[in-house]
Amino acid sequence: MDFLSSRAKLLTPYTAGEQPKEKKYIKLNTNENPYNPSPKVAEAISFAAQNLRLYPDADSSELCRAIAQVNNVQEECVFCGNGSDEVLSFVFYAFFGGSEPLLFPDITYSFYPVYSKFYDIAYETLPLNGDFEIDPSFYLRPASGVIFPNPNAPTSVYFSLEKICEIAEYHKNKVVVIDEAYIAFGGESAVSYIKKYPNLLIVRTFSKSHALAGMRVGYAIGQPHLIDALRRVKDSFNSYPVDCVAAAAARAAVLDTAYYSDITAQIIQSRDFFAQGLKEVGFRVLPSAANFVFISHAGIPAQALYAKLRENGILVRFFNKPRIDNFLRVTIGTREDMEYVLQILKNGRMV
Ligand SMILES: *Cc1c(COP(=O)(O)O)cnc(C)c1O
User: Fold this and answer.
1) CA distance to 94, 122, 145, 316, 348, per residue, from 99 (Å)
2) Lesser CB count within 10 Å: N end or C end of the chain?
3) Among the three residues 256, 291, 325, which one is the final residue of a domain in this structure?
4) 153 in ligand 1 pocket by Cβ < 6 Å?
5) Do 128 and 215 belong together in one domain?
6) Quick one: 60 and 198 in the same domain?
7) Which pLDDT does position 349 carry in this prediction?
8) Domain check: are 23 and 62 in the same one?
9) Of 256, 272, 303, which marks where a domain is finished?
10) Ligand 1 geometric centre to CA of 205 (Å)
């Protein structure tokens, strides 16, 4: 029996990091936050749950307003969706395609090629250099758009805002999207440049820095004509993507800036401690501006290390892909988690 449409046969689905059920791991494989969301989130959820009978606000206006306030932009410049993956899918549909290719780095978030294929968007990947940095001059060529995360995933490397400006300046008539899923962990956001560049769109998520991966809320910030284009796509697909509980949770989170600066500072401290410890036992650790590190060891293949860590109850991410198949991506957990990983690496005589 073959029920699949010819369209569905052509899909290449994204492979998410595993969420194991069989045993308890120290889970450092999907860049989740090791801390709980702000206590104000639980309060907001129980309040919102009293309204489940009703459809939510289709445009998540209160959440947009809170995001706008915290980011110092107008409410009309914010669009919310059901996780940033959904926001990204609307972005691909709204802005990319045509005879020129969409441009993104050869090593980057693996959902970009998936969406490109889903929407039949031609794309070209451009190589990062040996230090996994972007060369903006590669991007100064005809394209239907440009997208990359900053800091990049899975490498954790941050690209300077000058590089982004150079690309946005060149592609005046195309949309340049910066996926800032990890921007809270050290980099400087490009959000202040949306005033200068009508073609610049910033996409963010509550999943990582705001400890709400289970809630599924993401957003985009850009000038109102870009936001209107995203609404146009949303209203042709699902007019109520963000449920009322998720919207209330995300709103409470974004407004509790004190709580989140505190847990973010702790993650940054644990990251720097962990990176230092890894270097002492011979690892190459790429400079990280994210809540994870990208590491390799000349003495032991990444895949073997991945398996050894797994045996010891530690789950990290290994990508069996050209150029990065000797690297592991390790999410930063609590300080205790990171001390334990270092101890296993040393005492298990793995390195
Ligand atoms: C995690 C991640 C996302 C997806 O975030 P969700 O809001 O959970 O869908 C998007 N882009 C990058 C680069 C990510 O790492």
Assistant:
1) 15, 8, 11, 39, 54
2) N
3) 256
4) yes
5) yes
6) yes
7) 66
8) no
9) 256
10) 6
> Residue 179's closest CA among 100, 286, 261, 89?
89
Instruction: Please tell me if the CB atom of residue 156 comes closer than 6 angstroms to any atom of ligand 1.
Output: no
Could you tell me if the CB of 152 is within 6 A of ligand 1? Answer: no
Closest residue CA from atom 11 of ligand 1: 181
pTM of the model: 0.97
- Cα–ligand 1 centroid distance for 177 (angstroms): 14
What is the CATH number for 14?
A: 3.90.1150.10
1 part of a folded domain: no
End-to-end Cα distance, the chain: 51
Q: Is the CB of 213 under 6 A from ligand 1?
A: yes
Kindly report the length of the chain: 351
From the CA of 218, give the closest atom in ligand 1. 7
Flag residues of the chain having pLDDT under 70. Answer: 349, 351
Instruction: Please give the distance of CA 336 from its chain centroid, rounded to a whole number.
Output: 25
What's the structural domain count of the chain? Answer: 2
Same-domain check for residues 86 and 188: yes
Over residues 256-315, the pLDDT tens digits come to 999 999 999 999 999 999 999 999 999 999 999 999 999 999 999 999 999 999 999 999
Of 114, 205, 215, 317, best ligand 1 pocket probe by most atoms within 8 Å of the beta carbon: 205
